[in-house]
Design brief:
Elements lengths: L1 E4 L5 E4 L24 E10 L4 E10 L4 E13 L6 E7 L12 E7 L4 H5 L12 H4 L4 H12 L5 H17 L8 H14 L7 H12 L27 H12 L13 H15 L6 H12 L5 H15 E2 L2 E2 L25 H16 L3 H12 L11 H17 L6 E8 L3 E7 L7 E5 L5 E22 L8 E8 L7 E8 L8 E6 L17 E7 L2 E6 L8 E5 L1
Antiparallel strand pairs: 1-2, 3-4, 5-13, 6-13, 7-12, 7-13, 8-9, 10-11, 10-13, 14-15, 15-19, 16-18, 17-18
Helix pairs in contact: 3-4, 3-13, 5-6, 5-7, 7-8, 7-9, 9-10, 9-11, 11-12, 11-13
GO cellular component, one term: extracellular space
Protein name: Alpha-macroglobulin receptor-binding domain-containing protein
Keywords: Disulfide bond, Signal, Thioester bond
Length: about 575
């Protein structure tokens, strides 16, 4: 190996090796390279002899080093010609000091379609693996909601029709009604599969078995018992006989009463009435917020007396709003970490449970035509959306998109005629949103990340605008919920053994954990070397990453596993 310093200070690496190769044999030669640019580069290898020559050209994708990060700076612009017709909001954008050179990019997006950013990113709403039942639903449920919306508003095109049906069918193949998956997941999949029946073929016997299995766990008082392990620690208040679990199951049952197979060993309508009576009798004793908003949503969607509906809406408004501000889920926020604590962007991600709470409240207000209250919740939700169009995790993303879809179905501004001006320190960007292009997602890529940003708007309509920022940092600056350490064992020239140890930093134990292990270029993991590890449920290879699913990680027991 020779390293030559050129006159301009740049390094030129040369390497020489000699191999004598007999006929029908092969040899391996190592040539270390250091790419100077990110992106796709051509690598050409040639061989020559006195008798012949050959060459091969391949492409190498060079990725930036460091930890990928992204965030959005969104604004929700609602201009009513009868009240206000102008809007201004400014932001200061701060970034960490250890950004990897060449890894940063940004874009400005503006649209009159509230679901526009989510529809644009339907295939990648979340940047996370999808190897278990609930995560697989992220591939299906949003597509069902969007397909239903576009069909009802006559916006579906042949291209969108084929694209959405593909992902819906893919979701039905990946999801399954495994009893070990638990009550909540079974009820949720039942709901989505039933809604998909009008789009693709779904075997009615699959739905029937799921309904009968749920009904077999109903108690005499109308409540239900949980079955299986609940991986989401924030949903563990949904225990046996709880209103929250009963409301969740009842939601699935009420949506399946129109099926033609509702005969058999169980009286589904009788079971629904018993569950409804249980929720009405328990309503005054519901203290946790998720059970309250779920119960409210379910009961408001069923025939009730006007006195009961007024009571539910009064309680719901009191728990959602205080002094004209949203307070639902904003108190007692222990057991959480700040994703951007070290460098302080001023951007704080909401907890998944807060997004679910707000989404079910939005569904309740939409069901009763309370659009003014709904607009407040819709604005808050759009501010929690990530640059891919999703939210934090699977369940909150699915419920939030359902709530936003339902709201858009029932509410539309009187018209669109808005001029949006986005100012940065380098140049302004102009966007026009009118009746002809309100459903178009307009975007403008930036070669820099602005430090100062101002959104200005005049006219009338309802518009979502956002700055999306992507970059790699040399280190993970977030305050993690886990302590993770790696130990390199048996390090050889062509192989090494890696041990990964994990402990939960918060009190108690986590829900299901997915660890993502990046594999260095030129190496391949031997998945069989992991062996049988207590709590390790699944291992998947995804490109140059290895996804490892672990049941739970506690604060007092170190979770360890090794890989060659």
């Amino acid at each position: 190996m020779n390293v030559v310093i050129d006159s301009d200070g740049s390094e030129i690496l040369t390497s020489e090796d000699q191999k004598q190769i007999s006929s029908n044999e092969q040899a391996v030669v190592h040539f270390p390279i250091i790419p100077s640019d990110l992106g796709t580069i051509d690598i050409e290898v040639s061989a020559r002899s006195t008798m012949a020559a050959d060459a091969e050209r391949r492409q190498l994708h060079v990725q930036a080093e460091g930890v990928p990060n992204e965030f959005s700076v969104p604004v929700f612009i609602h201009l009513d010609p009868t009240s206000t017709n102008s809007f201004t909001k400014s932001f200061n954008i701060t970034l960490p000091s250890d950004i990897v050179e060449g890894s940063s990019r940004a874009s400005i997006r503006v649209t009159g379609d509230i679901l526009g950013p989510s529809i644009e990113g339907l295939e990648s709403l979340l940047r996370m693996p999808t190897g278990c039942g609930e995560q697989n639903m992220i591939l299906m449920a949003p597509h069902v909601y969007v397909y239903t919306l576009l069909t009802s508003t006559r916006q579906i095109t042949p291209e969108l029709d084929a694209r959405l049906k593909y992902f819906i069918e893919r979701g039905t193949l990946l999801a399954s009604f495994c009893p070990l998956a638990g009550f909540r997941l079974t009820a949720f999949v039942l709901r989505v599969f039933h809604q998909a029946r009008g789009i693709i073929f779904v075997d009615k016997h699959v739905l029937q078995r799921a309904v009968y299995w749920l009904l077999s766990h109903q108690n005499t008082d109308g409540s239900f018992n949980e079955f299986g392990h609940v991986y989401d620690v924030q949903m563990r208040s949904f225990g046996d006989h709880s209103p929250g679990l009963t409301a969740f199951v009842l939601l699935a049952l009420t949506e399946n009463t129109d099926a033609d197979w509702m005969t058999g060993p169980y009286d589904i309508r009788g079971a629904i009435n018993k569950a409804k009576d249980f929720l009405i009798g328990s309503f005054d004793r519901i203290y946790d917020e998720l059970s309250l908003v779920l119960t409210s949503y379910v009961l408001l969607g069923m025939p009730n007396s006007s006195e009961l509906e007024e009571k539910i809406l009064t309680v719901l408004k009191t728990r959602v709003f205080r002094n004209n501000e949203i307070v639902l889920g904003r108190v007692n926020q222990t057991n959480q970490v700040n994703s951007y604590s070290r460098w302080g962007t001023g951007y704080t991600r909401a907890r998944p449970i807060d997004i679910q709470l707000t989404s079910y409240a939005l569904l309740s207000f939409t069901a009763r035509g309370l659009f003014q209250e709904g607009l407040e919740l819709l604005s808050w939700l759009t501010h929690q959306r990530n640059p891919y169009g999703g939210f934090v995790s699977t369940q909150d993303t699915i419920v939030a998109l359902q709530a936003m879809t339902e709201f858009v179905k029932h509410y539309a501004p009187s018209g669109y005629d808005m001029h949006v001006l986005v100012r940065t320190e380098q140049s302004p960007f102009h966007f026009e949103v009118n009746m002809n292009n309100s459903q178009v997602l307009q975007s403008h890529g930036l070669s820099y990340i602005p430090k100062e940003l101002t959104f200005e708007a005049t006219g009338h309509g309802l518009v979502v605008a956002e700055l999306d920022v992507f970059f790699n940092a040399e280190s993970d600056f977030g305050e993690s919920a886990f302590d993770v350490s790696t130990v390199l064992l048996d390090d050889y020239l062509n192989s090494f053994k890696l041990m990964i140890c994990t402990r939960y930093r918060l009190a108690g134990e986590s829900g299901m954990v997915v660890q993502e292990v990046g594999i260095p270029s030129g190496f391949a993991p031997d998945v069989t070397s992991i062996g049988n590890v207590a709590g390790l449920k699944r291992v998947e290879q995804r490109g140059r990453f290895l996804d490892v699913y672990i049941d739970r990680v506690s604060d007092d027991i170190l979770q360890s596993w090794s890989l060659i």
